[in-house]
Design a protein that fits this description.
291 residues, mainly alpha, MetI-like fold, two-stranded antiparallel sheet, 12 helices, 2 strands, 2% strand, globular, Sugar ABC transporter permease
């Protein structure tokens, strides 16, 4: 029996081998190569010399590293709770038994299939000062205010957060919607017979059933938010005055503009360990909650 099972497993190797080779080349190898690069002075052209932990010592005293790390963390704080709550609300709306259900699902999800360049340039067009769509709407209501969306620090953060929520909420909504549809209808029928109100059903049936997927959405959103880069680069360029520059943008600038791939790899590993620690903590909390 064991030999037969072993023979069946061997038959699967030719089908798994192409993926395994690609996974090693494009995932495993870069991990160890990046670790090597962080220990060297390394340019875009060649490896220069071994510097040991010098890059890591430099990172801890780098003001720009800590500032961009705070900007990234601030973005996570702004977007993560809002994303989870908004995705839940839209999923509840898309799950209603109405004629507009298909419209809700499509309109909420469509922005998430657009590329970041399309989303970014659309927002730049809409938020231009003086002749932008949003500013024209403000003027139509007689409000004597000309907001500079990308030039003011507070408004720049508002712009980035709103754009990110609108662009990415569709995926998280789908996760919540799938979990809502997995809740047995018999639970609601039994509670309705017992005289439970809509709020009671939501509080004691819907929310507890959504806790597992809610934890998944929370973890995915934290990881995705810490890796924010493209929309900020295209919309504000990290400005004004570096106020919205995230860590990955700084890593990009150090590596490809300052020609210092070794130090860029060091900061990349710092971000990697931050995400690893957050993932471990979240998974442990999830297991303790299940227990």
């Amino acid at each position: 029996m064991i030999k037969k099972q072993w023979n069946q497993d061997l038959k699967a190797i030719p089908f798994l081998l192409p993926f395994f080779i690609a996974y090693v080349i494009f995932t495993i190898f870069p991990i160890f190569k990046g670790l090597e690069m962080s220990l060297y002075e390394w340019t875009l052209v060649r490896k220069i010399e071994f510097v040991g932990l010098e890059n890591y010592v430099k990172m801890f005293s780098d003001v720009h590293f800590w500032r961009t790390l705070w900007n990234t963390t601030f973005f996570v704080i702004l977007t993560t709770p809002a994303m989870v709550l908004l995705a839940l609300g839209l999923a509840l709306l898309a799950n209603l038994n109405t004629k507009l259900r298909t419209f809700f699902r499509g309109s909420f999800f469509i922005p998430s299939i657009l590329s970041v360049s399309v989303i970014s340039f659309l927002m730049i067009f809409m938020l231009q000062p003086y002749n932008g769509f949003v500013n024209n709407i403000i003027q139509m209501f007689g409000i004597n205010w000309e907001p500079m969306w990308m030039a003011d620090r507070g408004l720049a953060w508002v712009t980035i957060v709103v754009v990110t929520l609108w662009w990415t909420v569709g995926f998280n909504m789908i996760l919540f919607l799938a979990a809502l549809q997995d809740i047995p209808a018999s639970l609601y029928e039994a509670s309705e017979i017992d005289g439970a109100s809509r709020w009671d059903m939501f509080r004691y049936i819907t929310l507890p059933q959504l806790i597992p997927i809610g934890r998944v959405v929370l973890l995915l959103q934290i990881l995705a938010s810490y890796k924010v880069f493209a929309q900020i680069l295209l919309i504000t360029g990290g400005g004004p005055g570096g106020a919205t520059r995230p860590l990955i943008q700084y890593i990009y600038e150090v590596g490809f503009k300052q020609n210092n791939l070794g130090y860029a790899a060091t900061m990349s590993y710092a971000l990697f360990f931050i995400l690893l620690i957050l993932s471990i903590v979240q998974l442990k909390n999830q297991r303790s909650g299940e227990n």
